[in-house]
Fold each of these.
Amino acid sequence: MQTIQSNLEHIHQQIKESERKFGRATDSVQLLAVSKTKPNHAIVDACRAGQRQFGENYVQEGVEKVQYFQEHHSDFDIEWHFIGPIQSNKTRPISENFDWVHSIDRAKVAQRLNDQRPEGRRPLQVLIQVNTSGEASKSGIPVQQALELASSIEALPNLSLRGLMSIPAAVASYEEQLQAFNQLKDLFEAIKAQYPQVDTLSMGMSGDMEAAIEAGSTMVRIGTAIFGARAYSSKQ
Ligand SMILES: *Cc1c(COP(=O)(O)O)cnc(C)c1O
């Protein structure tokens, strides 16, 4: 039987192989374990196998998990990433509970996350979600508007801009996957040139991880290949 531990080992192996194959530095690609819809005991198993960074998509479910682990397993010292769509009336629990947010796609949401960050906490580490697929994907800001949003975020003291995230529309071939990821990589380089603290390019999921690493991903977001298929839809 496949366990969470053996799945994690397998993915780390694949990441290493891709780093080597594409001339990427060793350990330049981090693994974010996407635990949405999965129970706390699955997260405990992953933590016991050494995983520390977890991604959640739904506000209520995510906050319950963050608080459960703070109360019962603070020794794991988990870093929590919010990666789902953000409604502007749901920013407070995100800003109060998470360490990272990958899915900022408008200035209003950035402003609210900034204003609602509890005093004394490290700034929220944030990524701009970019839509590289045009009509085919509704989430994320168009490529042309990303630099403007980056400069709005830079002005907010309780947010720290770390990079970009994208979820390209599912495409059939490796070449098409690579094309979408390369577009994001170009934008990442442009933003990095302006903001030296920018270091994170969040792209690649269970089905397109290799192409993402070839194109320069620094953080892959993997759910299914670690925890198995989800019982309910990932769409909100
Ligand atoms: C669900 C989800 C993932 C993980 O997808 P898998 O195909 O299960 O690896 C990654 N990123 C985001 C934003 C997601 O919603």
Amino acid sequence: MDYHADHQIPMSSPDLTEAEIQAVTDVLRSTSLSMGPNIQAFEAAFRAAIGVRHAIAVNSGTAGLHLCVRAAGIQPGERVITTPFSFVASTNVLLFEGAVPVFVDIDPVSGNIDPELVRQAAADLSAGESTAKKWLPRQGAPQGGALKAILAVDVFGQPAEYDAIRPVATTLGLGLIEDACEALGSEYKGRKAGRLGDTAVFAFYPNKQITTGEGGMIVTDDDAAAEMMRALRNQGRAPGDTWLDHTHLGYNYRLDEMSSALGAAQMRRLDDLLAKRRQVADWYGERLAEIPWVEAPALLASTTRMGWFVYVIRVAPGIDRTMVTCQLESAGIPSRPYFSPIHLQPYMVQRFGYRSGDFPVTEDLAVRGLALPFSSVMTEEQVAVVCKVLSGLI
Ligand SMILES: *Cc1c(COP(=O)(O)O)cnc(C)c1O
């Protein structure tokens, strides 16, 4: 499905140069394939780029989020306010720990969690079981679990509304986890994505702003959380533990040296990669402005810098998105619905009894959102081809 003939425009594409190939080859000629100098260099690059005390490389964004959940001390049955409009991993990491995701709906412009709903839900969930009930799923949530944290997602690269969310967390003593997996290079009111939660995670699957093949990076200023997450990444080995000492129940979430070298090389090109992505987004924006039934992505005033991840348009209400996808497909242009709501995934419906209509804004954006081909290596001609096909459809 993700295979495309050469003449076709790919959905996404990594942006690799000889420098990356050389960096990975150098590792293969060395003797150190794990926990060597490259993971340290990659982490150092992130500390510098984001301006944080700690960066911890892991083997996926999902693994990083899971460690943030562990570090926040979230226990089985405890509740975490989060969004149903995301990639499934942001909810799954809560389920891994037996926690209860409490979904609230989203802002229709950005697709980010609605801060007013976060405030209301947090107040009600903290006030006792009878007021909590209206926010909980129909079934599958154990009685009486404490509200423990908020997990916000920077959707498509735009940071969530942290100036409204942070005070809720502070007032109620909740953890705040930032899923910044789509937001490398973004800024919220001049503050970098990755610095907006207590802990935050970036991800490096090949469609992200930088890639390591598979990989992720946790960033935080919290010394204790960082020490715990370093231990959990490495089979639960605390500082001072030998190879067969395991202070904690941990995981193998380490990032290997080949991936780390690739990541460090990509980080040296970060500004260039982001500038190229911005240029492609601008080319789309200019051309799509002329197509009345297409809503181009709208940037919030709070997004003072955008690290473009995907380019998701919305078809106007009443337009048949399937028809659009099929017509693009027959012109050799891939496109993807984006996101598919988490609460309507089969395993979520089965466990929690969710139904269509539970989160109407999420469902509306899910029905109308369409990711177009997007990457830093896309040419203006390719963008023009996509937009020309779109403009001829309706
Ligand atoms: C990419 C992504 C992740 C992490 O994905 P991995 O494939 O595990 O690296 C998590 N959350 C969001 C919102 C993402 O887009």
